[in-house]
């Protein structure tokens, strides 16, 4: 896996991933940025959320559960001093489906958290990780 980051202007950067996709990043106005794109740490949080959501859906589908939707809201706290690492991250899952069993959803989240989601496992080296889930019945 590889990624190349190129400075654009001001405090804007463009990342080109190994798969050929582009992602813009920008700094806050007080840091010389123009607030045109997400901050790098926001992208790390988004990556962890995407990684675990992917896992949960895949695990539930492989278990032949009728999953229809999955969202993960992440609430993160960072250290007050440099390096301002994440110190606490709360993952709040909302999984929608038909007749989903809480045990199956919690198992999928647990497997993601403990075995499959490299991003959240890595972030767990500096942050307390909390997982919560809500299950909604699909129409």
From TrEMBL:
One Pfam family, short name: OsmC
Q: Which SUPFAM superfamilies match?
A: OsmC-like (SSF82784)
What protein does this entry describe?
Answer: OsmC family protein
Question: What lineage is this protein's organism placed in?
Answer: Bacteria, Pseudomonadati, Pseudomonadota, Betaproteobacteria, Rhodocyclales
* Matches recorded under InterPro entries: KH_dom-like_a/b, OsmC/Ohr_fam, OsmC/Ohrsf
């Amino acid at each position: 896996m590889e990624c190349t980051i190129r400075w654009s202007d001001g405090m804007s950067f463009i990342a080109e991933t190994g798969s050929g996709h582009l992602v813009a990043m920008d700094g806050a106005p007080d840091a010389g940025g123009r607030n045109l794109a997400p901050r790098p740490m926001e992208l790390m949080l988004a990556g962890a959320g995407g990684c675990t959501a992917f896992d949960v859906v895949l695990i539930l589908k492989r278990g032949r559960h009728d999953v229809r939707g999955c969202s993960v809201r992440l609430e993160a706290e960072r250290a007050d001093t440099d390096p301002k690492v994440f110190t606490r991250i709360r993952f709040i899952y909302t999984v929608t489906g038909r007749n989903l069993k809480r045990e199956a959803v919690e198992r999928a989240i647990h497997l993601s958290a403990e075995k499959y989601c490299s991003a959240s496992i890595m972030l767990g080296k500096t942050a307390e990780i909390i997982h919560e889930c809500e299950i909604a019945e699909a129409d």
